[in-house]
Design goal:
Structural class of chain B: mainly alpha
Strand order of the largest sheet of chain A: 1-2
Low-confidence stretches of chain B: none
Largest interface: A-B, 55 and 59 residues
Order of helices and strands of chain B: HHHHHHHH
Distance between the termini of chain B: 51 Å
Helix content of chain A: 55-70%
Radius of gyration of chain A: 26 Å
Mean pLDDT of chain B: 86
Largest sheet of chain A: 2 strands, antiparallel
Number of strands of chain A: 2
Number of domains of chain B: 1
Mean pLDDT of chain A: 79
CATH architecture of one domain in chain A: Orthogonal Bundle
Strand content of chain A: under 5%
Number of helices of chain B: 8
Helix content of chain B: over 70%
Oligomer: heterodimer
Number of helices of chain A: 11
CATH superfamily of chain B: MetI-like
CATH class of one domain in chain A: Mainly Alpha
CATH superfamily of one domain in chain A: MetI-like
Largest sheet of chain B: none
CATH class of chain B: Mainly Alpha
Strand content of chain B: under 5%
Shape of chain B: flat
Chain lengths: 306, 215
């Protein structure tokens, strides 16, 4: 195990002290959790003397035995995934488009695209979804998909642009030198490299997109968080906490799974952690000479991880 | 045009609420985020585990559910705050792990040699972090941190769903009152958001350029 450089690998005395500190903080955290659980589990007495059962009482969780409830949750999850999936594809397409127009040579294309990008990136997603819904009257589903796709597309576009800019200049020069047109050079030489380099960032943004589908509640689309709200009003406040807790766990599982996939892909194909890719310029102007010393960079699959 | 003047007081009221939400939860998230980041690199394993779990949980729950938790579950735990304060708590909790990640990545970005040099002249953990690593990390952390605050600005709009009269709620009301000028009302609200986010983005860009030249 490689120890952190920030402190010595601990000796016996420090190790004992650190173990004590660990134990103390564990006890504190456990006490906090215990307190939360007991308060939640305790029956409470309302101002008018009416007593309601605690949050973990069987009268509150018996609802989970009902298959219809699970059916509802499943529908919510499917609706969330349906929106997130289509919006993700759209976001990547829009991102590719933005990265192209943003790096165009003609100022007539570049300047308007910068303005549109800034506008889209500076606006809350919630407002964007609402905007599409009211102005284009597309219906709830497409309002969510278009709003999320546009917003995340702008962010992915910026990431791709950063990726294109970080390539050694020789890549583009070589493409032009062998007679490819500027557009062709961008498409078949620069873009694939930028995409691979920026894949971790794009995937992280897709996790955000999945989380943000919950904002489609504003237009009344029945995804998971709105399902929770609907069930609460349908079944009554008695089940509020139970349904909320289940929904929370479902969200956590979905997002953690996607984050895990993102991290796995990042490990496999992204820039290696802690080690800058040789073609990432560390200083301005440095990339000019780099291309000569690194003839192989960017062609074929990346080196296998050592 | 009349409609624009008509809704201006409502929008300014919402705008000020948005600014308060941004300022207070921004400061709160910064404080908690720095503490969590410090826990994450600390020598005590329990603190490291706690900070990691905290970050993973809050980063993977939609903000809507975090605010839902604050608005409906915290009162069960005995808080008697109003919805505005609860929204502040929710936004702070939701934003703090993002701050922590930004700070941590800044600390990781400081060359290892710096920490090694500090250690080799006999500085302890606190001194290494406080005197050598953090001052250098601080300057690299600023641009990503500003991005976190831009995101926070946009996220305050979600609080509108929980009885906080901020800008998005004002826009919502305005579109209902002036149904024939929906586009105008929404663009007005968007412009007010851009008044906050675009300057922040420009500052981040300038600082980023400065830092890059210095390093």
């Amino acid at each position: 195990m490689s120890a952190s450089v920030l402190y010595d690998s601990p000796g016996p005395k420090t190790r004992r002290r650190s173990r004590v500190a660990s134990a103390v903080s564990l006890i504190l955290i456990a006490a906090l959790v215990y307190w939360v659980v007991t308060v939640l589990a305790a029956p409470r007495v309302a101002a008018n003397g009416q007593e309601t059962p605690g949050m973990f009482d069987s009268s509150r969780i018996d609802i989970l035995g009902n298959p219809l409830v699970w059916q509802n949750f499943l529908n919510g999850v499917l609706a969330t995934l349906a929106m997130a999936g289509v919006a993700a594809v759209l976001a990547i397409l829009i991102g590719i488009f933005f990265s192209f127009v943003r790096t165009a040579r003609s100022a007539w294309i570049r300047v308007p695209s910068v303005i549109v990008l800034e506008f889209v990136r500076g606006m809350p997603v919630l407002l964007m979804i609402f905007f599409v819904f009211l102005v284009f009257s597309t219906g709830a589903y497409w309002a969510g998909v278009l709003g999320l796709g546009l917003y995340n597309g702008a962010i992915i576009g910026e990431a791709l642009r950063a990726g294109i800019l970080s390539l050694p200049r020789g890549q583009r020069e070589a493409g032009l030198a062998v007679g490819l047109s500027p557009v062709r050079t961008r498409m078949s030489i620069e873009f694939p490299q930028a995409f691979r380099q920026m894949l971790p960032i794009i995937l992280a943004q897709l996790v955000v997109l999945l989380k943000d589908t919950s904002l489609a509640y504003v237009v009344g689309y029945d995804e998971l968080s709105r399902t929770i709200k609907n069930m609460q009003s349908f079944l009554g406040n008695r089940y509020l906490f139970t349904i909320f807790a289940v929904g929370l766990i479902i969200y956590l599982l979905m997002n953690l799974a996607l984050s895990w996939v993102a991290r796995w892909v990042a490990r496999r194909s992204g820039p290696k952690l802690g080690k800058a890719l040789p073609n990432t310029p560390k200083q301005l102007g440095e990339e000019g000479t780099r291309a000569i010393t690194l003839p192989k960079q960017g062609y074929g699959p990346p080196d296998p991880p050592h | 045009m009349d409609a624009l003047i008509d809704v201006t007081p409502l929008y300014l009221q919402g705008f000020s609420q948005t600014l308060i939400l941004l300022a207070v939860s921004g400061v709160g998230a910064f404080v908690i985020g720095v503490i969590v980041a410090a826990m994450r690199i600390s020598p005590v394993p329990a603190l490291r585990v706690f900070a990691t779990v905290y970050t993973e949980i809050f980063r993977n729950i939609p903000l809507l559910l975090v605010l839902f938790f604050c608005a409906f579950v915290l009162p069960i735990l005995g808080s008697d705050l109003d919805f505005f304060s609860l929204a502040l708590v929710g936004l702070t909790l939701y934003t703090s792990p993002f701050v922590a990640e930004a700070v941590r990545s800044g600390i990781n970005g400081v060359p290892v040699g710096q920490a090694e040099a500090a250690r080799s002249i006999g500085l302890g953990f606190g001194q290494t972090i406080g005197l050598v690593v953090l001052p250098q990390a601080g300057r690299m952390v600023v641009p990503p941190l500003i991005n976190v605050f831009i995101a926070l600005t946009k996220n305050t709009s979600v609080a509108g769903a929980f009885f906080v009269d901020e800008l998005f709620k004002a826009a919502n009301t305005a579109t209902r009152d002036h149904g024939n000028q929906v586009l105008l009302m929404l663009l007005y609200a968007a412009a007010l958001y851009l008044v906050i986010t675009v300057p922040l983005g420009l500052i981040a860009g300038v600082i980023e350029k400065k830092v890059r030249v210095l390093r």
